[in-house]
Amino acid sequence: MADSEEVDSNPPALKPSASVSQDRRVVMLGNPNTGKTTLFNRLCGLRHKTSNFPGTTQDARVGTLQQDQGSPLLLIDLPGIYSMRLKQAESVLCLDVLKGRAAPGSHEAVAPDVVCVVTEATNLPRNLLLVGEVLSQKIPTVVVINMVDEARKKGVHADEVKLQELLGCSVVVCSARTGEGVEKVQQALLNATIPVNAPAEGVRALEEWVDEVCEHINICMDKVHEDHLTDRVDTALTHPLFGGLIFLTVMASVFFMIFKLASYPMEWIDVSFSLIAQQVRGVMPPGILSDLLTKGVISGVGATAVFLPQICILFFLISLLEDTGYLARASFLMDRLLRPFGLSGHAFVPLLSSHACALPGIMATRSIPDRRDRLATILSAPFMSCTARIPVYVLLTVLLFPNSAALQALAFAGCYALGIFAGVFSSLIARRTILPGPTRPLAMELPPYRWPSVRGAFIAAWDRGFVFLRNAGTMILAVSMVLWWLSSYPMVEPPAEARTLSAQAEKLIIQADNDTENHDELVLRAEQVQKDADLIAAKYAARESFIGRFGSVAQPIFAPLGFDRQLTVGVLASFAAREVFVSTMAIVTTGSEDIDDQGVFQSLRSAKRDDGITPVFSIPVSWSLLVYYVLAMQCLPTLVVTAKEAGSIKWAGLQLAWMTGLAYVFALGAYHFAMAMGA
Amino acid sequence: MPCIFKEPRAQSNPFPQTVSNAKYFNQDSQGYLCLYASKSLTAWVLPATIVLIETESHLQACVIFSTEKSALEDQVPVTQNLENTQRDEGVLCSLAELSRGQTCVVQGTDLDAEDEALLRAMGVRPNCQLRVCQPGQPCIIQVLSAAGPCCRVGLANKLAKLVKIQISV
Q: Which residue ranges form the domains of chain B, and what is each CATH number?
């Protein structure tokens, strides 16, 4: 491949663009693994956002490319595709964008001003198939030959000037990774021209045209060599045993980093939101508005934001693994394991993502070409133990095994295993009943092994984190505010017992003021009495709130699982977002939502039912609750995303009914089994 | 000793899709050879003759396809899995039957339209040259161009069995 300096990006023979609008819209298109997104990142940096195509489940990154002179270019990075003729959703979308039938976000659906087709220098013949399809659209086109540095290393040569002549549009060589030639790409986008040549209609004609072009541009390699090293690595990575061991090691490392590294920023976020709430409480006078802001808005946003580090780390690592070429190999490895359950290797990344959060996991199913495979994956994904389940797992495993960290860890791992088993089992049932038919055999390009781009991974993590906050945060925030209202209203006066204790506390304070000898002791006693009064008042208020009353009505439904009224309230309150279970239980049983306070945690263990004798968290009940939370669909945003991605609300309804039903039956079994074992 | 593995182009279904996994064979009532992957599953039916060749280490089965019906013994077990035998140059067979390092030219496929369109878009199209990087599951191939190796594609063995190829040098 010749150096980029040798290429004239705007030869005089080419016709200028028909119209130069003020906000030129550039669509970036290309095969997967051509470095298209790297080029987009290089051109736009962080000046981009992910926008959804209205009426579809597809999205694209939209960025602006600042110009030294003139208005900025609007760049739209479309999903990687092999052809616009395929029936896959991404292919249809790309064709629609080129035809001016679709546009992301609020942008008007018009044909783009320029199409930038990104190709890979070492794989030009295959990439030219898509180039030919784009040329047929008669839109100003720039063909970018990316990864020229890699081509040089491999000794691949091609005559770009001849290629430009044959295609009848600008051809620019660059390396998005190193930045070489990127300025020329920018220049070519400004001067893009309508291609003067195009292949004839039909697949065969297109293939013949590509062969002819390749023949003329003299693609050749200095030294043809068979890549035996890659062969050997491929064999190892896809080997059932060695590949499996490598896979387990990689996944263990990923999860270690997700949980260990993320724990620090998660703590910082948690503390920050607590401080913000304290500040607001200190500044504002007590009342409804203060409560709404601190207990509704701030705690709602905090409850979502706390998972952001895990989401970002997961997608950072996924991006790195994808860049190295490992994920495609892992998909084939997982294909063997998943296929018996009616899932394909394509389901691997969505299911992996679902261990952080089901929302990005379900959205990642768009890459699965077969609709039935995709639906089976959507139904399985919410069973994977997401980070929102972790607080519940932590609480219950500690309550079950207070003196054994090893048993806690074992129970914790068991929860993950149960979730995975339930997910694949559900897929198997679905494929045998409502989604019959064989799983589509896997065909996937295996990209070359490369050093990953850390910059690209950072941008991917940022992007995904932002989408997560936008999609999930808004929903959870709204739900938190509704829950706050349901659990705070109607406001009731404290019961007589609480009032009496408060009066006693006040008397003790007065006594302390007059008794300098026993002052400290009396103040301590007063504080303890006031704390008891607050606890009684909080429990009474929780019982009398709308959700408390509803809990009393719904309790008979959960009684067979061993749940009392307080647990029923916790389960109902966490219907929309399971992570609120722990804080709800803390409020319901102790009157405080500070779950990090060891004293409150201890209080949960000693919390009693309304009879004042039976513990709320007995061993059988804790097992039942743990199984219930592993399997139950306690996440409203997931249902919303399922309905959107599956294309119908009935899939969300089915998911809710199946997961809740399964959770109920298994929790019932766990409760009675634990009772029978004398626990 | 290499296996003599010929097939008649005139056959309606000339591509032995699962013959490589055949471990048992017999003759059906009409004199057609039936190859079995297991005792309960008929893998492929075609008029042919079988020659058993005893080598120093094992027994090899050589399948000579013809349009004439031949008399064969019933239920003769094949001790050698044919998968390990190298196919001769120029022979037409399925992609799944090639060994590591062998190259071939794609002749066509029996895939459904969607899978075929995807493979074509990925560069696996008629007359393109392929190199088998790893046989089996997954079958990993490299698409070769005039400039040398291009992209690598992983295929489920089920798909590889439906890609018809001609072995090249």
A: 19-84 (no CATH), 92-168 (2.30.30.90)
